[in-house]
Amino acid sequence: MSIVLDLDHSTAVRPAAPGRPSLIGMSKPQLAQTLAGIGIADKESRMRASQLWNWLYVNGVTDFDRMSNIAKPVRQLLADEFILDRPEIVSEQISSDGTRKWLFRFRDPANPRLPPVEVETVYIPEADRGTLCVSSQVGCTLTCTFCHTGTQKLVRNLTPGEILGQMLMARERLGDFPGGSRPADGGLVPGGDSRAITNVVMMGMGEPLYNYENVKQALLIASAGDGMSLSKRRITLSTSGVVPFIGPTGREIDVMLAISLHAVNDDLRDVLVPINKKYPLAELLEACRNYPGLSNARRITFEYVMLDGINDSDADARELVRLLAGIPAKINLIPFNPWPGTNYGCSPSSRIERFADIVNKAGYASPVRTPRGRDIFAACGQLKSESERLSKKDRDALTG
Ligand code: SAH
Ligand code: SF4
Q1: Second label for 309, Cα 20 to 30 Å away, from 52, 228, 329, 397?
Q2: Residues 6+ positions from 357 with CB-CB distance below 8 Å
Q3: What is the pLDDT of residues 332-345, one digit of tens each?
Q4: Beta bridge pairs of residue 125
């Protein structure tokens, strides 16, 4: 059983005001520069930037009028010039296992005539943590054959503000801001931690390393100690293997890395994860070996989807262990989550157990990922939206 909430759209919907830029997604120096750009003096703009930062990311405020330590005329000036845009919630679904999935809608404030785009974001509560699965793109340029998102063409990259907007909106819905209230089914929120969202995984729609700069900016803001303050050890970026950006991810964002491996030889990986033709296994694993800061306490997660009769033999398991030798690694076996129209099937549980056993015996603990939210289509690889890519002609007509 799953529940679809009937939301009160008068509070959930915050349509973007045409033309005014959103402050969400700006770094602190960008905020100060933007304030200086509307005539606020240099020194004051730095102070105001810090105050705004605190209101936006610590307190989750969406209305300039609530910024009590900012003088009224300045609040008015800010409201005239900027918006604090968050996505509109199109739907919120709750799975029988407590997983939540939102369909969020974004408009482009700079081009209000463009049709809005939609992405899915998922919250997975567990006993000791609450994980938010965030999207980086609308659709995906890649076409991994077992992935539902891969059947949707890339519509566009999400901006830093839109990536953060998913986190802010989820926090609000889960009562994570000061003064917020937990949802009625608040028992699903992990015990022991005061926050519902403790972890973030860039594992929603899209390939984060094909939107590197925006993902970097969003994650640096999300992990800033004086803001949203998510620990970098609790943020994981998953990539299908965009090799040139793996090193920069470690050096510049410094978050945990997950690799969608899924096959142990190039012939099969070329089919399952076609980016492999560009960056084959040897290059990918070399980039992993060189990932900055690797240690036994800081390992790379290798994701491996279990596809019946395709990549799930004992020989595959042994080859997997051999390939990863020498890399501080965790292995995550993901039972394939089916979607309408796929030709793949999930390996039987006895096969997954046998595969896991071989991997376990090689020293990798508890590797099978329990599918979450399958009933609301929220599990790995099931996310997709109806947003469609516009032709250049239509886009030009709408943006003038
Ligand atoms: N684009 C990035 C992150 C998003 S996908 C990437 O590919 O890494 C998150 C994980 O789910 C990836 O490992 C992806 O390969 C896997 N996945 C995709 N479709 C799946 C499906 N139908 N069942 C199980 N896992 C799937
Ligand atoms: Fe894109 Fe990742 Fe899906 Fe591949 S698995 S199509 S990279 S979202």
Answers
A1: 329
A2: none
A3: 999 999 988 999 99
A4: 130
Q: Are 100 and 165 in contact (CB under 8 A)?
A: no
Per-residue pLDDT of 48-77, as tens digits, reads 999 999 999 999 999 999 999 999 999 999
Q: Are strands 100-106 and 88-94 parallel, antiparallel or unpaired?
A: antiparallel
The neighbouring-strand residues paired with 157 are 137
- Is the distance from the beta carbon of residue 142 to the nearest atom of ligand 2 less than 6 Å? yes
The response to whether 148 counts as a known ligand-binding position is: no
Q: Cα separation of 390 and 17, whole Å?
A: 22
CA–CA distance, 323 with 326 (Å, rounded to integer): 9
240 within ligand 2 shell (Cβ under 6 A) = yes
Whose Cα sits closest to atom 4 in ligand 2?
144
The distance of Cα 82 from the centroid of its chain, to the nearest Å, equals 26
CB-CB contact of 307 with 337 (8 Å): no
Burial degree of 205 (CB within 10 A; 0-12, 13-18, 19+):
buried
Q: How many angstroms separate the CA atoms of 206 and 153, rounded?
A: 10
In this prediction the pTM is 0.92
**Helix H or strand E encompassing 256:** strand 256-260
